[in-house]
Specification:
InterPro entries: Tn903_transposase (IPR053172). Keywords: Plasmid. This protein has 74 residues and is an all-alpha fold. It has one domain.
Length: 74
């Protein structure tokens, strides 16, 4: 079966949905970078992919275990 094509009739709602999806992805990447650092340590591409997968698995385990709420004291 061919993929159905839908015409977008309500652009403002569609754009809000895309912005929400992007915001969720940015929040996830912020969490990864805050916990594990902003760069990968391995040089080759395959190693970096494996390292990123390991970081994602670790983050998922930490999230599943329940992370404490942190409050900034300033």
């Amino acid at each position: 079966m061919a993929k159905q094509k839908f015409k977008i009739t309500n652009w403002p709602t569609y754009n809000k949905a895309l912005n929400n999806r992007r915001s969720i992805a940015e929040t996830a990447m912020y969490r990864v970078k805050q916990l594990f650092g902003g760069s990968l340590t391995l040089r080759d591409y395959d190693g970096q992919v494996a390292e990123a997968m390991a970081l994602v698995r670790a983050l998922n385990k930490m999230t599943k275990a329940g992370m404490p709420e942190s409050v900034r004291i300033a």
